[in-house]
Amino acid sequence: MRTSRPARVGQYTALLVYLVFLAFPFLWLVATAFKPPRELGSLHPTWLPDDPTLANFRQAFDEQPLLQAALNSLLAALAAAVVAVLIATPMAYVAARRRTRLAKAVTGWVVVSQAFPFVLLIIPLFLVLKNLRLINSVPGLVLVYVVWALPFALWMLAGYVRAVPPELEEAAAVDGAGRVRTLVSVTAPLLAPGIVATGLFAFITAWNEFFFALVLLKTPEKQTLPVVLTHFIGAEGVADLGPLAAAAFLATLPSLVVFAIIQRRITGGMLTGAVKS
Known about the structure:
- By secondary structure, the chain is mainly α.
- It has helices at residues 5-33, 37-40, 55-63, 66-97, 101-113, 118-131, 138-163, 166-174, 179-190, 192-208, 211-216, 225-229, 241-267.
- The protein has 13 helices and no strands.
- Helix 1 packs across helix 13, helix 4 (66-97) packs across helix 10 and helix 10 packs antiparallel against helix 13.
- It is globular, with a radius of gyration of 23 Å.
């Protein structure tokens, strides 16, 4: 059915309003990062800085160890993403291909576990890390991020596994390939978009996470970027707005860059033409 012109105009208008709604906070953050102090304190703020400056960025790096914090966040996020994907891929394969009651129970528990609040998990996780002597360490934080990302990664990858035609695995079995060889050589390459999307989810979740890092990391040189951003807020709750906006803008760039690099692999049709009916 062809959509009428007024309906199309309404759809595009609604889409444009939604995009502006999503983009406005980021655009305002960028504008604030380049405003000088006199414009930040103005009673009549402008959309764009009249006199752009890089002083906020220099001040942000002078006041806080942003590079070290960014390195800590990068190491924790990359490690958590890689470990979560490596563990979730074979688990998702079993959950998707084994239609048993146990597999269904595991899948249901995965979905339910996503409703648990952070506060409910932090005490047992803290006690476990304390016994393992991983408190105030990046490896301990990585372990927490893997535990938190694993349920959703498992659920997400299981859906991609179900989309892989079973005929491909049956053909590999006829050729003499075992389960492990089939998973590595046949299924895993076809799961590339799902693996990339899951890794991206785990990376962004770990990169932006604040609560666990705040509780588990006490030494300043081990803190992650979201925790260091809070140092721009004074004891009385007054924020140093310019440097804070500059540091927050820099903190958003890695997620945007990672997504821009791999977005084609997420949307790529890896399964197109794999099986002809």
